[in-house]
Amino acid sequence: MTATRTGGRILVDNLVAQGCDRIFHVPGESFLAVLDALHDVPQIDVVTCRQEGGVGFMACADGAMTGRPGVAFVTRGPGATNASIGVHVAMQDSQPMILFIGDVDRGMRDREGFQEVDFPAFFGPICKWATRIEDARRIPEYVARAYATAMNGRPGPVVIALPEDMLCDVVEALDRPRIDRILQDSDIVKDLEARDLLENASAPIAIIGGAYWDDAALADVGAFATEFGLPLAAAFRRQDAVPNDCPVYAGNLGYGPNPKLVARVKAADVVLVLGARLGEATTDGYTLITPDHPGQTLIHVHPDPNELNRVYRTDVAICADPGQFAKMMTVPTSDVEQRPDGAEAHAEWLEWSTPKPREGVALDLGQCVAAMRDRMPDAIICNGAGNFSSWWHRYWHYAAQPSQLAPTAGAMGYGVPAAVAAKLRAPDRPVVALAGDGDFMMNGQELATAIQHQADILVLVIDNGAYGTIRMHQEREYPRRLSGTTLHNPDFAALARAYGCWAETVETTDGFAPALDRALAAPGVRLLHLKTDVEFLTPGLTITSVRGG
Fold this sequence. Notes:
- The chain is built from 21 helices and 20 strands.
- It is an alpha/beta fold.
- Helix 3 crosses helix 15 and helix 9 packs across helix 11 (about 320-330).
C-alpha cells in the first residue's frame, strides 16, 4: 500500500506484510512511535520483557520455532548492548532474527549523545547485516531485505538502528510484499557422486544439524539413512534434527558423547555432513574430525557457499538445502545393501541413553530425566549453559523439531526466555526450562514475563551452589584450589512463589516424581527447585575423579 504515515507506522505495517505476528521488547523512549503504531495493530502480539537479554533470547528461540525471523525491539545504548547476547547466539546457532534498536536523532549523531553507540560498527562482526535507516520512505526496502538476509543461505541475525526522529517523519512509502526463503535445489551430479561414495564405503557415518529441518526433510533423511543402514549422529545441541526413535539414530556429538559413537566417527571412511557447520563443540576442538581429515572422505551439504571449504577441506561440496539433498537421495538409483551399522549404532545409543541408578547421590538427575520421559515425552526442552544440561543431553529422547532449544554458543540464561517464547508459539505442547542455579539467576526475572503473558511453562532449577562447569575446569587445572566459583543462593521456590508461580523444593530422588506429578497438575507457571550435590558434576564425572582420585 502507499499512504502518508509516520515512519513508526510504516515499519509496523511492513512487519505485518512479512507475516510478523509477535515481537519481544523492553520499551524505550527512542521507539515510542513504533509502540504507538502497535496500539492499532492487533495482528502483532507485543510481549513485554524485563531485561533486553531476555528479549534477544526470546526472539532467537521464536525464529528457531518458526523458521522466520524472531523480532525484537530495544532502546539504544544499554538496551542494545544487553540484547547483543541474543544476536551472538542467533549468529552462532544459525537462527533467523531481526533486532530493531531505537537510536538517537539523526541531528545528534557523532556527539556522543545520551546512550549513543555506532550500532553498525558494534554489531557488524556478530550478525549477517547491521545497518541504520536514515529515510522513512525506505523502511519497506530495509525490512524486506532484512527478512531475506536473515532467512537465506545460512540463517542468522540482522540488526537495524532506527533514529528516533526518523520514526516520527510523516512520509509516503510503498510497502513491499512478503519475502519467503529461497529453496536451493541439490546438484544431481554431485548427489550421485555422494550416493556412490556412501554405497561403496566400508564404514560411513552422517552428522546432521543446522537449521530449517521440516517434517518432510526429516522423513527423507530417515528414509535414505535407514535404506543405507547409515548411522545418523546429531551435531552439538541439534538432537532434534532427527526424531530419536529413527532406527539409525546414533546419538549426539558435543560434550560428553557416547565413546562408542566417537569411535564410529573416528573409524569412518566417508563422513556425510548435513546442514551442520562442524563447529568446535561438535568436533571436540576440531580433533574428532580434523580440518584435513586424512583417510576420510568428507561430503558437506550446506545452504551457504561461504561455509563450504571454510574450515574443512571438502571432497564433495554441495550447496543446497539439506532437505532437498535428502529428498534426492530417496530416489533409488540402484539396489542398496543395507548395512547393520545403523541399527547397531542405534542400539548403542539406547544403552547409553538409559539412566542407571547412581550410588551415593541423594538426588539422582538421571532418574529425574527418566521420570520426565515417562510423563511428557513430547516436551520442548529449553536450556542454557552448564553441566546440569548434560543429563538431558545424554538421557532425554527428543521428538521431531522443534523439541530442543539450546544455544550452541553456550550462553547462560537462555532457558527461561526460550521457554517463554516456545510456549507462546506452541501453547498445546509442554515446555520445560532447565537452568542451573547460576544460569537461572541471569534471566530468572523473565518468570514475570511468563506470568504476565500466560506462558505456562515448567521450570527446573538445578542448584548445586556453584558455577559447576567452571568448578569442573578449575578442579582439573588447579585441583583443590577453590576460588570464585561458589554461589550463595536464594530459596528458589520461595522466589518463584513471589512471582506468582507454583513451586516446590526437591532434595531426594524418591521425592522428584511425586513433585513432578503435582507440578504437572497445577495451573500456571510452575517451578521445581532441585537441590543437588556439586560433587556430581556430570553423569560420568565427579569432583573426586576430575582431581585424579
